[in-house]
């Protein structure tokens, strides 16, 4: 990149009014960590009148090693499976305080209650907790930073791991081409609960992501935003490529970007000249085995066919 | 004060609402269900102003009261048996995070085999969670312990479990003094939390601790729990001042009955003490000098109070509604470890009895007192360890061959 190009990029970035106050640098995330970017954007967008609940996972561990904390807003971690349950209680407490007219909480009428959780905590172990929170209608924005595996415990598969991916529990080998079940459709599951606002995003487009955070916070009730957050360690790419990979996921259609309101898809990011999935797969170690032989080739074809079907269903091709 | 003939669960529900919690979150399970329903009824009639979460599971009941407590709310939940197991993971964090919350447990056995009846296998398995554990002998005490639990939890910043025996106390109707709002407010003023998630003073709660800090983080609640006896004694004394009901001569930690001149003692938790007290009256008619010791608190373990009250007896029979498979009854294990270093320790025998609601009659307990009396002359050093544990109600005839031969 030339200096001019870099300056241009930085000009774009300065649009965000960069501010460390909510999620400070110096946390222990790996360089190039997608989820850490998500954390910063979420709290910057929400502002200081915010309480974040974070289940166990990479982001909890890297941000809160006692006695240090990267969090400039109020933040709580309890266990892996229960962030929505904890958030339900916090939100109910504030509702109770205001119902009782407790003066000391008068300023906090519009606190932002946010769960910031990995895909493992969301798609798998915390699903019951999340379902209950949705059903009861707590005013909580749930942000799932989707890095498509359990990174904190060393890259095991989750319900979000895409087909064909090698993880430590879906290793590729003579008889295996990696993960063999489809990625769980969490946004649809959220929408099926009657959640008013559901959206997907990619960290490669922070402006879009932050708009969605803001939209979710405005809803008077639960909202769900799922953001693709590439992980250089778990996916196997160089730290400076995080944004590129996020962008490629959108450009190949493997990670469609859309909004749902009251169960209906209302806005889809169209992709002109959708790129073949190989361009995305070949840049990540987790898919490298797919380029080794016939079976891998078949898997790639299947993946491509599924993306095409999904693109048609969502009317992505612009 | 209004005296009502009232069912145990309804009485506890009234006590909870009287304590005016900001958030109640609970999930039904027999025999606790009546408490949740009672609170729901009171809320439906406009007697409860806080939030009542009809939650999806005990796991999230515990999780949500943890969240609410961190936000600065007075909180309550209730459960039994398998529900307590489902709460166990989040509950273990509550003491480490110094979160006061009150949990009523209607004690019930744990599957398998499935049983809904009373024993203490549910709460004994949570003894290392860092929760204070109170046990009630009758419905009145379950009501009073509910209020004492809030007081102690909030003073010590520790979670408190208030136990009442399933069915034996939850489903009986007893005459109960249901506390009126004014004295409750005097005894339990509005909760003023020290640290909350207040967004205007940001805090990090429940952080990740590495080995150089974790030990200390565990030591603190352990120490506070060890010293919690004072706070429980104080709360019990102040409770007596406000409500006129007294709990035990040993500062509210241990209740005793006809122990002063006793040669042998029966030690038990909860409602079984009532049966034991009747049995003691009966046995004394036959010249057997026996008394009852009832710890009101199992965590912190009231070791000092027990050493004091058991100082004069030759033998203690622990009537125990729990078993730690592969070892023995948890209550007698704890008692033995408290007495071990004493030069003149009494013989301790463990009677595993009343599991999963098997009826315990006064005659059963008189029989145990008789047996103890005979043993009383035997020094603990002479007694064969494998004879210390007895299962008086075991039906040998229905055991499978592999254990009966
Ligand atoms: C009950 C329980 N099971 C398992 C774990 C181990 N564990 C901690 S974090 C984690 C994975 C987290 O994955 P995810 O939610 O996707 O977040 P990430 O680490 O990728 O940020 C696992 C399996 C745990 N802490 N608790
Ligand atoms: S392993 Fe991945 S998700 Fe975890 S801190 Fe490193 S880059 Fe971020």
Can you put this structure into words, describing what you see?
- The complex is a heterodimer of chains A (318) and B (405).
- Chain A is built from twelve helices and ten strands.
- In chain A, a hairpin with a 2-residue loop joins strand 5 (172-173) and strand 6 (176-177).
- Chain A has helices at 3-14, 34-46, 58-63, 83-99, 119-125, 127-136, 186-192, 206-218, 232-235, 242-251, 278-281, 294-314; strands at 50-53, 74-76, 112-118, 141-146, 172-173, 176-177, 197-202, 223-228, 258-261, 264-268.
- In chain A, 39% of the residues lie in helices and 14% in strands.
- Chain A has a single domain (15-314), classed as Rossmann fold (3-Layer(aba) Sandwich).
- Chain A is an alpha/beta fold and 318 residues long.
- In chain A, the strands form two sheets. An eight-stranded mixed sheet of chain A has the order 2-1-3-4-8-7-9-10, sandwiched between helices. A two-stranded antiparallel ribbon of chain A has the order 5-6.
- Chain A is globular.
- In chain A, helix 4 packs parallel to helix 6.
- Chain B has 405 residues and is α/β, with parallel strands linked by helices.
- Chain B folds into two domains: 2-197 and 205-243, 3-Layer(aba) Sandwich (Rossmann fold), CATH 3.40.50.970; 254-398, Rossmann fold (3-Layer(aba) Sandwich).
- In chain B, 40% of the residues lie in helices and 19% in strands.
- A seven-stranded mixed sheet of chain B has the order 3-2-4-5-7-6-13, with helices on both faces. A six-stranded mixed sheet of chain B has the order 10-12-11-14-15-16, sandwiched between helices. Chain B has a two-stranded antiparallel sheet with strand order 1-8.
- In chain B, helix 7 (181-187) runs antiparallel to helix 9.
- The longest helix of chain B is centred in the middle third of the chain and has 18 residues, at 139-156.
- Chain B is globular, with a radius of gyration of 21 Å.
- At the A-B interface, strand 1, strand 2, helix 4 and helix 6 of A face strand 3, helix 3, helix 4 and strand 9 of B.
- Strand 2 of chain A pairs parallel with strand 9 of chain B, so a sheet runs across the interface.
- The structure holds thiamine diphosphate and iron/sulfur cluster (SF4).
- Iron/sulfur cluster (SF4) is lined by residues 29-30, 33, 35-36, 58, 62, 147, 151, 231-234 of chain A.
């Amino acid at each position: 990149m030339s200096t001019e190009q870099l300056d241009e990029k930085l000009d774009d970035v300065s649009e965000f009014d960069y501010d460390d106050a909510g999620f400070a640098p110096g946390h222990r995330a790996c360089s190039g960590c997608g989820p850490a970017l998500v954390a910063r954007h979420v709290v910057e967008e929400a502002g200081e009148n915010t309480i974040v609940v974070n289940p166990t996972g990479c982001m909890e561990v890297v941000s809160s090693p006692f006695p240090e904390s990267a969090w400039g807003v109020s933040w709580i971690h309890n266990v892996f499976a229960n962030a929505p349950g904890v958030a339900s209680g916090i939100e109910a407490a504030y509702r109770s305080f205001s119902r009782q007219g407790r003066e000391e909480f008068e300023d906090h009428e519009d606190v932002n209650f946010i769960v910031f959780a990995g895909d493992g905590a969301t798609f798998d172990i915390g699903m019951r907790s999340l379902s209950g929170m949705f059903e009861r209608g707590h005013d909580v924005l749930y942000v799932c930073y989707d890095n498509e595996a359990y990174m904190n415990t060393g890259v095991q598969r989750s319900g979000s791991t895409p087909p064909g991916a090698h993880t430590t529990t879906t290793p590729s080998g003579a008889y295996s081409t990696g993960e063999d079940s489809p990625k769980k459709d969490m946004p649809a599951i959220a929408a099926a609960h009657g959640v008013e606002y559901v959206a997907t995003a990619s960290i490669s487009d922070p402006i879009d992501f932050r708009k969605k955070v803001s939209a979710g916070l405005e809803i008077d009730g639960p909202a769900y935003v799922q953001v693709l957050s590439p992980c250089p360690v778990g996916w196997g790419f160089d730290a400076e490529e995080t944004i590129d990979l996020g962008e490629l996921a959108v450009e190949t259609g493997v990670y469609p970007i859309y909004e749902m309101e009251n169960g209906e898809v209302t806005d889809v990011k169209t992709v002109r000249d959708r790129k073949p999935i190989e361009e995305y797969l070949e840049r990540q170690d987790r898919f490298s085995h797919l380029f080794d032989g016939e079976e891998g080739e078949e898997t790639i074809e299947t993946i491509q066919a599924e993306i095409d079907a999904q693109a048609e269903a969502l009317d992505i091709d612009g | 004060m209004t005296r009502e003939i009232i069912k145990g669960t309804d009485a506890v529900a009234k006590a909870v609402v009287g304590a005016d919690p900001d958030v109640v979150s609970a999930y039904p399970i027999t025999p606790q269900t009546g408490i949740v329903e009672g609170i729901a009824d009171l809320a439906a009639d406009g007697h409860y102003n806080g939030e009542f979460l009809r939650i999806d599971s005990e796991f999230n009941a515990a999780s949500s009261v943890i969240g609410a407590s961190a936000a600065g709310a007075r909180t309550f939940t209730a459960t039994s048996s398998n529900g307590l197991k489902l709460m166990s993971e989040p509950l273990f964090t509550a003491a480490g995070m110094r979160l006061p919350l009150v949990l009523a447990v209607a004690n019930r056995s744990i599957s398998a085999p499935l049983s809904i009846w009373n024993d203490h296998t549910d709460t004994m398995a949570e003894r290392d969670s860092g929760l204070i554990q109170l046990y009630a002998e009758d419905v009145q005490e379950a009501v009073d312990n509910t209020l004492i639990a809030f007081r102690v939890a909030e003073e010590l910043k520790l979670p408190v479990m208030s136990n009442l025996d399933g069915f034996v106390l939850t489903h009986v109707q007893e005459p109960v003094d249901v506390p009126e709002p004014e004295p409750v407010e005097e005894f339990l003023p509005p909760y003023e939390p020290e640290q909350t998630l207040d967004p205007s003073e940001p805090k990090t709660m429940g952080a990740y601790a590495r080995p150089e800090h974790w030990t200390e983080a565990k030591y603190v609640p352990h120490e506070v729990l060890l010293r919690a006896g004072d706070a429980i004694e104080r709360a019990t004394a102040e409770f007596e001042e406000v409500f006129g009901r007294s709990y035990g001569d040993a500062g509210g930690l241990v209740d005793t009955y006809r122990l002063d001149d006793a040669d042998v003692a029966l030690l038990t938790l909860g409602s079984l003490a009532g049966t034991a007290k009747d049995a003691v009256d009966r046995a004394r008619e036959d010249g057997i000098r026996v008394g009852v010791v009832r710890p009101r608190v199992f965590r912190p373990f009231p070791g000092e109070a027990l050493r004091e009250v058991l100082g004069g007896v030759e033998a203690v029979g622990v009537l125990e509604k729990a078993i730690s498979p592969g070892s023995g009854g948890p209550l007698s294990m704890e008692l033995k470890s408290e007495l071990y270093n004493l030069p003149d320790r009494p013989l301790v025998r463990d009677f595993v009895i009343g599991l999963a609601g098997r009826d315990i009659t006064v005659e059963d307990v008189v029989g145990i007192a008789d047996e103890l009396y005979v043993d009383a002359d035997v020094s603990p050093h002479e007694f064969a360890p494998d004879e210390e544990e007895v299962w008086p109600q075991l039906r040998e005839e229905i055991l499978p061959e592999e254990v009966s031969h």
